[in-house]
Structure formats: structure tokens, C-alpha cells
Amino acid sequence: MNKILFTLHIMGLILMNTLLQAQTITIFGNISDKNTGEKLPYVNIGVENTSIGTISNEKGDFVLAVPEKHKAQNFVVSMVGYESQKFSVEKNTGKATLTVKLVSIDFNISEVKVVDKSMFAYKIVKTAAEKIKDNYLQGPYNYKSYYRTHQTGYKKRFRESVLLVYDANGYAPLNTGLKFTNRNYSISEVRRDYTITDMADALTHVDEILQFDVAYSYLNIFNVNANKDFEISIKSETVLNSDSVWVIAFNCKNLHLITTGVSQPLLYKGELYISKSDYAILKVNGELEYRNYSTAALSVAANQTPHDIANFMYTTTYKKSNSHYALNTINMLKQVYNNNKVFEWEQSYYFEVQEIITSNYKKIDGREYLEKKAENKLFWASYKSPPME
């Protein structure tokens, strides 16, 4: 008797499970960007006027379970930055996989809710950071470049030079230490309006300006692991060099090494100009301030008394070379203060990539931190320096 009851109990459970399955509609789907084909994770999928819903996984896949009683309703696929799409539950019952292709929105910023605008701004910056490896030049290559410094204050001096930068890997995602060792440079021509009398006069400061090639270094706003350490918002939309761009304002609220690239940061903020078509970083206006600055800067370790504060205001631009973007210019002003916040001196920097060499490139070992080259008057007589702004 007990065996019969047990068998009936099991059969009852199986029947109940079958009935429950019959009362639930399961819809399988995959979501991607219509323009790029990129799979879209964390997209919301929800049945209208209910609490029934799910989200897509990292591959854009989702499974939506809908009770039979809601089969006449619609479900909506939505994500910030994209047009929502509506589908019938009943019409998608029994399909193998529903393919959803979302269309990105060309936002009129004034019409976007403040919360959505903020979420979208974070998404833009995160996507731009993730696409650096695809959008930017990969190595090995050379940048044939022009570099100028002009200092005023307790010392007045001007120097301009032509140099060759070699990069083994380019903008490929590597840890910061490896990226630093892969980028070397040598100076071929130089002229200055002063005589070198000490090490400070000979310092090239090339590393100091190249740290503001922000798409190259990940210790800044484009550190995807530190995205939430920044306040990010969409400031406006505009056109830059025929490209429609978002202008994104950022301000670092959690100042440390991995968010700024320096060990004692006091301030880091700026604006990003990001292309709407491919999320490329086209321009960055930034300001970085930090404590314990040394005149040796990033170039060499030296026994020097550090100044208290250095403030850097910079503009970095990128341009497309064939199918990838590359560094174009860095324009920077450095102001140095003593421990009492009294201004001491300032130095302007200008760096311009004049030629990108991806074949027959020259490998360079090491960096020319110090230079004492004699001026080649014949070279400078025919060389046309970029104008000073």
C-alpha cells in the first residue's frame, strides 16, 4: 500500500511540474548594437505593467519566463543610450531565439533626464576606454615629433627639438609598467637660447609631457576599474573636425595613484571630446595638480629638494591615421609653487607628432633624459617650426 501511495505522489509531482511548465512561456533572445554588432550586456527586459523581467548577460543573451496569463501582453527591451523596443509575448512563444538589434540614440541632451544623462555619461567613458585597444595605433611604430619648452620665472629659457619616439606595443592593453618600458625616444636635433650649466638645464622632460597622452596610460579617467571614482556628466554635444562628439566633464573624487598616475594628487578634472560614431577620444582638456613635485619630474631619480605643488593644465588631441587613431598634439602649461603656495615659475610645453612610421621603423633602446647636443644651424635654417600660440 505504501509503495502505491509513494508512486502516486511521484506521479502527482511530475504532473504538477508539467502543468506549471505549460503555464509558463519561456522566451530566449540575444541583444546587440544594430550599428556595430557589439553584444550588449545588462540590458533590461521586462513585461509591461508587471514586475516580471530579467537582464541580458555579458554575451547579450537573455531568458525571459512569462506566466501564461500574461501571454497577451508585450515585453520591452531597454537600455540607456538606445531606443527601446517592444515585442509581443504571444508572437514570440516557441521561437528558437529572438534577435534584438538596438539602435543608439543621438541624444538631445536637454531632453534627457538628469539620472539617465549621468548613467549614459559613465557608459560613454567606459566604452571609450574599452575601445582604445581597437581604435588606437598598435605597435611597433615611430612617432617623428617636434617638442618645445619655454620656461619663465627664476630662470628664463627656451628649447626646441626634433625627436623620434619608438613604441613596441602602442596602445595595446598592457600593465602600466610594461607600457612605460616599451616607449623610448632619442633626440636628433636641438636648439636653445641658453647654455647648459647643470643637470636641470639638460633635462628633456619628455616623459613629463608624454604622461598626458591619456589614451596611452590607464592611470587616469580611462581606468575602467576606477570609473566610479569620478564624477562624470555630459556637458554638451558639438562638432569637432567634422565629427559629432559628446563633451564629457569629469572630476576625480577619489584621488590616488590609479586614478591620476601620481602619488600625491590634489586635483584632477577636465573635459573629454568623444566621437559618437566610434567612441574614439579626440581631445582632452585637463588639469592635474599634485604635491611633492621635483624638477627632475618623471625623468630621473635625483637628489633634489621637491617643490610642494605643481599644477598642469593641458590639451591633448588625437587624429586618425589610416584606420587607427594616434597622438597628434599635447599643449601644456606647468606652474610650480613653493611650500607656502607662492608662485615660483612656469613652463609651457608643446609636443607635435609630425610623421607616423609603421614600416621600416627604428627600434630605440632607452630614453634620452639629458641632452647636451650642439645646435645644427644648417638644419634649423631649413626647418619650419610649428607656430607658438
What does this structure look like?
The chain has 389 residues and is of the alpha+beta class. The protein has two domains: 2-105, Carboxypeptidase-like, regulatory domain (Immunoglobulin-like), CATH 2.60.40.1120; 124-382, no CATH class. Helix content is 17%, strand content 41%. It is built from eight helices and 17 strands. It has helices at 2-22, 114-130, 132-135, 176-182, 199-202, 206-210, 257-260, 377-382, and strands at 24-33, 44-47, 53-55, 61-67, 74-78, 85-88, 98-102, 141-152, 157-167, 183-192, 230-240, 243-252, 265-275, 281-293, 307-321, 324-337, 343-357. A ten-stranded antiparallel sheet has the order 10-9-8-17-16-15-14-13-12-11. Strands 3-2-5-6 form a four-stranded antiparallel sheet, with no helix packed on it. Residues 1-11, 13-21 and 298-304 have low confidence and may be disordered.
